[in-house]
Description:
CATH architecture of the largest domain in chain C: 3-Layer(aba) Sandwich
Shape of chain B: globular
Number of strands of chain B: 2
Mean pLDDT of chain C: 91
Helix content of chain B: 55-70%
Low-confidence stretches of chain B: none
Number of domains of chain C: 3
CATH topology of chain B: ABC transporter involved in vitamin B12 uptake, BtuC
Shape of chain C: globular
Strand content of chain C: 25-35%
Order of helices and strands of chain B: HHHHHEHEHHHHHHH
Structural class of chain B: mainly alpha
Oligomer: heterotrimer
Helix content of chain C: 25-40%
Strand content of chain B: under 5%
Mean pLDDT of chain B: 91
Strand order of the largest sheet of chain B: 1-2
Largest sheet of chain B: 2 strands, antiparallel
Number of domains of chain B: 1
Amino acid sequence: MRLERRTDLSPAMLLAAPLMAVAVSLALSGLLIALAGVNPLAAYGQMVQGAFGSRLSISETLTRTTPLVLTGLAAAVAFRARLWNIGAEGQLYAGALVAAWLGHSLTLAMPAALSLLIIMGAGMVIGALLLLGPVLLRLRLGVDEVVTTLLMNFIIILFVSMMIEGPMKDPLAFGWPQSVPVESDVMLPKLLERSRLHIGLLIAVGAALLIWLVQSRTVFGMQTRAAGLNAPAAVFAGVPLSKTLLGVACISGALAGLAGAIEVTGLKGYVTLDLSPGYGYSGIVVAMLAGLNPIGVVFTALFVAVVFVGADSMSRALGVPSFIADVIVSISLLTMLVALLFTTYRVRR
Amino acid sequence: MMEAVDILFSASLWGAVLRIATPLIFGTLGALICERSGVLNLGIEGIMTLGAMVAWMTVFQGGGLWTGLLVAALCGGMFGLLHAVLTVPLGLSQHVTGLGITLFASSLTYYIYRLALPVSSSPPTIEPFQPLAIPGLSDIPFFGEALFSQTAPTYLAILAIVVTAYILIRTPLGLAIRMTGENPHAVEAQGLNPTRIRIGAVVVGSALMAIGGSFLTTATFNSFFPTMVQGRGWVCIALVVFASWRPGKALLGALLFALFDAYQLRLQHVVEGGVPYQLFLMVPYVLSIVALIVMSRRARVPQALMAPYRKGER
Amino acid sequence: MSRDTVLELTEITKRFGDLLANDAISLSLKQGELLALLGENGAGKTTLMNILFGHYTADSGTVKVFGSELPPGRPRMAIEAGVGMVHQHFTLAGNLSVLDNIMIGTEGLGQWRSGRRAARNKLMVLADRFGLGVDPEALVSELSVGEKQRVEILKALFRDARILILDEPTAVLTQIEAARLFETLNAMTEDGLSVIFISHKLAEVMTASNRVVILRAGAVVAERNTADTDRAELAELMVGRRVTRPVREDQQPGDNVLDLANVDVVENGRKQLDDVSLTVRAGEILGIIGVSGNGQSSLGRLTSGLVGASSGQMTYDGTTTDRFTPRQLVANATGRIPEDRNTEGAVGEMSLWENAVLERIGDKRFSRHGIVDRNGCRAFTADLIERFDVRGAGPQTPTRQLSGGNMQKMILGRNLASVPKLVIANQPTRGLDEGAIAAVHGELLAARKAGAAIVLISEDLDEVVALADRIQAIFKGRLSAPIAADDADPQRIGLMMAGIWEGDHAA
Lengths: 349, 314, 507
């Protein structure tokens, strides 16, 4: 048996790949659900119900989608240039921390909109800066950025823990490790009355459109793609490889940082250590399922959000541990990798 | 200030070093074997988590401690096989696949654990490995307590280093593994099957990683809780680079790390107030990054690391 | 000498996708024979030998060695049956010792100890017997190309090969080394071994082989006893049609365009170019001839703007520097044809139009304010496809789908579309068939006629003699003084390629 590169590559197959991947993942996870003594179909039905069954559940699902779109974009942008940013989780927390700090102390005489812009900007800058370090290490010294960004996640989260138990601790939080809250007038406006859904969703979808435009229409996007697909050819053609990668790092880190700033100013209002249930890591799955396509990211982020929100509700109703959501999502990543392989290769005897 | 120095001369510190080093030794050794054959295995973090849980669960359900380690090794090997099948014959990205394995193995671990044991306020415990004093040697003052009163898996870790070093350097199998990591085409041209060699190396390496994880629940602690591996897997990946892909240096690196870790734990108690404990906890991660930077220019990377090999393709 | 058949290939057929690489090829080898497998690039020679050795599996057909059939796709069985193969791209691990490289696969993987001493002794005996001296403990990465080839041959002999296959064995050797290699092979056939060597060089086939099998487009077109044929017949059989390569016409060169003065280049900690000086003028072709691996890649990278000089200076169009950048060069009307078109010349997954414009995407024609003008790009590419006869592709086609020749035409096209001042062509015809070679030569000569200064770096003596006005040889990173093409006889150039030339540069 050997693999042979396909010469024909139909768009239909590119669309079929994630669907196949998800189907296989749901089938395999179904076995685990059955292990819990629950009919998998009933469980999946309950999940859909839990994610879309009511106005509240729909708004919850969309609220969850928001950070996943941003971390998904962070991964998609970076991976396309073969920059393995696995540090979105840390960058998200850093953005969140900065947002909480500024949101609490920026009570100057400036309009709330301006404060919000500054907060978002600061979250993006800190995210970008945190990724620049590992990327510079790779460019200068050849240090694998996967390991450094992973390790930095731990360092950053410990730092956040230190801040919210120390200088930024909320004295009114009954001793819980929780940061000071942002002022209520710099909270993002709600998108839907009587729900937690905020305009962060629009920002995220806007970011996806913008990234898509940059990738498909600009010189920078074309150079980035060339650098990711074939670095020696890009260098030969005069693409400034270091600059391009640093640019990509800034965008990727900024998106993750923005995710954190939006979670704080849109939803929580303060930082705790359970701000993100692994959005940074789930973003990798979101990006891969979307085939690194920014528009696709919006839809795959929605899928992942559905799985998480639905699993929570299903878990409460049927007693299947909610970790099943992580299982479904992680298996989809692996099956997607295989599905992608078979869109570019065919098996020959 | 004197107290900070005194710690260094306490036998309990050095005893702790070996204990803390044990999971790192197994993990680093496992990652090293994978990488020597040319496969980066970022599944390590998840495989260690899985190993920790299944070993604990085996014992909790009435199995022996050694049975627990064996079951952990088998489960680790199975996830290694999955990683190997995806990255070697299929040639998928080792980075992304490895992360996928980590996400899959850890989420499956938590799911199974939760399925078997409903939520409770304090996690259930088992009777862990007890220190095994080596007769005679353990009576030596200072060194006896520091080196020869460890649990059995720690001695096993040292033995594993020696055996791995011997196999890699002295045996035809070791040559085949090293050559596969340098140039799989050379291996195939001489009639061996590089695909099988890589799969074998990844399976064995992953089994060792799982044993490393199992040490946490069967010796260091006596219960399992989520996120208990806490990045030790990533530290191991950094240690492999630090060790320049050599087993002896891997032992040295693991011990050095454990020394810093054990020292900072004790220093926390000495330096009361003022210094947040999180700063101490950051030490291993910061050190890992420093190790990567220091060794970046010197390390001799296996030439075919992360290069997929497909038969009949050049 | 007995004349038993030791090897028999019957009706071997192999397809790669749409390409029929081997079409029912049958072939036999007799004991003690030195058989040449002749064919131009892409004729299917290497595929056939890889099937014989088990790297590839044939779609149909059988391989018989010493009368018994080999199971397909099992190199180990081929080795055990007595077949040894020396690959064109050596299969060696640079970070391991010679002995390690030779011993790999010779011992059971279950063994608890490696028998290094016995292996070492056996190796020394073999090395002595065939005059293939080599240090068993040396690291392979520190060996010269010739020594590496010796290790490859020793690997086969160590495993008691009775049939030796060599794929383009002289590609990396000087004429002197090549002559020595054929002496060794002769000694081996007298010793009872049988040898097949793959080649596309008529001269060595005529002098070294007993018999020639000629492959063309995946099929055997003829078979001759070497004594009964001549170069002209072989050439016609190999190419199958009369392809006339264009010839250079006399013309007066103009001003100096590019000057390199005493340039050193250090890459990967090694000095790759050593005190190199050259001058190329408008309307002339300067040929840099040399055996592969003598610094051509570095010279190509230096003049293409990928590396800088560690000492010495380069003057291009009046500006002196120690480092060009790809952007400056492209902006300054320089055409650059990279050594390896697949890794450096194009991004295979991107469309043809993207590859056609990538290096000059900043041009007003192709983008405004950082936004790509796709219509402009596609129109340019469509025009290029037309003018440079790129076949089987449109602007949207993924570049990977192009054949080597058509990809090279695209690369030539994007460089020559508007007349360049300077062209750096590094191995522009490597791996191409005769038709494509003639097209490339035609374009280079047209550029010369239009007044471009051209640096042609090549390993192909015929190509350099046919195209270049002046020739410099490259050997171990040094350049000989130029000689006029009209003074160049093959003997003299052969010596120059081995580093033997007059003047202060003599090795």
